[in-house]
Write a structure and sequence with these properties.
The chain is built from three helices and nine strands. Among the domains are: 29 residues; 61 residues, no CATH class. Strand 8 and strand 9 form a beta hairpin. It is an alpha+beta fold and 191 residues long. The C terminus is likely disordered. A four-stranded antiparallel beta sheet has the order 6-7-8-9, with no helix packed on it. Strands 3-4-5 form a three-stranded antiparallel beta sheet, with no helix packed on it.
Length: 191
């Protein structure tokens, strides 16, 4: 750009800045500042502005009485069943009413379909490996791996193997089973 064009643009910008400054200065001196709000203040029309102490005392002395429902829970409480006595056996403590449901039996711990017959370690120190025998199949599984797409090996110990059933999350243990000297599984020694 040439120097004349630059001077023309500078002059136009100075004129615009002057106009903005003039209007900003004239608006600041007008009575629309923070004091103008208090000049036009109109108090609310209240019939009796005094405190109603009797209403406050009544609210303060009110006591909460529960109806048997937890007000912080969206779940409705179970119905209250009051037992009734048999008329003929009023002297006994036999009550008529609904019997409590039988306790839910806990499922037995899961069993591993393979036999845990040994363990070993890899030279690079990754972790222990478990040797498992399922019929003729031998599995070598590390801690954290999945066996037969159903069981996760949690810990390989000296005397037992801890595992978790993936479908239910139940945990179980399998003891280390040693073979007799005369039996052969075809798997070789468990180093």
């Amino acid at each position: 750009m040439k120097q004349k064009q630059q001077l023309a643009i500078l002059a136009v910008l100075l004129v615009i800045a002057g106009v903005v400054w003039y209007y900003a200065r004239t608006e600041a001196t007008s009575p629309s500042g923070p004091f103008s709000v208090t000049q036009n203040y109109q108090p609310l029309a209240v019939e009796n502005p005094q405190l109603h102490r009797e209403s406050l005392e009544h609210a303060r002395k009110t006591e909460y009485k529960t109806a048997g429902r937890n007000i912080f829970s969206a779940v409705a409480p179970p119905p209250i069943v009051t037992p009734t006595r048999k008329v003929a056996d009023a002297h006994k403590n036999d009550f008529v009413g609904p019997k409590p449901p039988p306790p839910i039996p806990t499922p037995p711990p899961p069993t591993l379909p393979a036999k845990f017959f040994g363990y070993g370690t890899v030279p690079n120190g990754v972790g222990r490996r478990a040797f498992l025998l399922d019929g003729e199949d031998v599995y070598v599984v590390a801690e954290g791996e999945v066996l037969l797409n159903r069981f996760r090996i949690i810990k390989v110990g000296n005397a037992s193997l801890e595992f978790e059933e993936l479908s239910s999350g139940r945990r179980g243990t399998a003891p280390l089973e040693e073979q007799a000297a005369g039996q052969s599984s075809g798997a070789g020694p468990a180093a």
